Amino acid sequence: MSQVDSRPDRMPRHIAIIMDGNGRWAQLRGLERNEGHRAGLESVRDTVRAAGELGIDCLTLYAFSSENWNRPKEEVGELMRLLEYYLDEELEEAMEKGVRVRAIGRLDRLPPSTRAAVQKAVEATKHNGELDLIFALSYGGRTEITDAARRLIRDAELGHIDPDQLDEKTFSSYLYAPDVPDPDLLIRTGNEYRVSNFLLWQIAYTEIHTTAVMWPDFRREHLERAIADYQARERRFGRTPGQVAADGGEEPSG
Ligand code: FPP
User: Is 238 exposed, middle or buried (0-12, 13-18, 19+ CB in 10 A)?
Assistant: First the structure.
């Protein structure tokens, strides 16, 4: 029986996940690390399906970080291959279920075949409207902020931006996916408690749920547990408990 309160106003709109523990899952079973990544693919499928069914608007998956480029060449190659395989395999279901595939990160660093697979899925699903499935690929939060600053400075030099008028809203419009609301809930699997350069700007007020479950074992029940944990918390956005009650639990607008 699900512990989730499925009323739309109680559900997180955007869930972001740091999928960790593939390597350890494999090692524990005497398998190669890549076997863990392969097994992790099933968790991606199950989680995406569950998120859609639960009515989540956006799901961002940390599939490959800027730092992951430092892994052995064979492991990087396998992760790219798995991503290509997933995007190709799941396209039909994405169309059926109204999943819009998107990607954030330094996509220019991806191998041409991976970039092409991403572009194909993004293009084919761009009019879908049920669930935004955002893959963070070759992604780093500090790089995202630096990239935003670079574009902003250029616009300032061109006179499109007045530095004295710069505010958080304008700055965030330079991030990779400015239309996506900040995550309400960040889940990290694999018994680790770090943010690991993920969505640094966007998680300022995000609730964090960590679990010892290794990513290849993560299933809908774990997603539901994380959502129930989120729903049990009070998001104060800097206010006192009394103010929160007076505002009806809503996020302050200003
Ligand atoms: C972390 O486990 C996971 C990754 C670096 C990548 C996540 C990739 C997948 C789930 C495979 C398929 C993905 C998609 C999107 C199709 P780790 O290797 O850091 O685990 P460890 O900390 O136990 O070594």
Answer: exposed
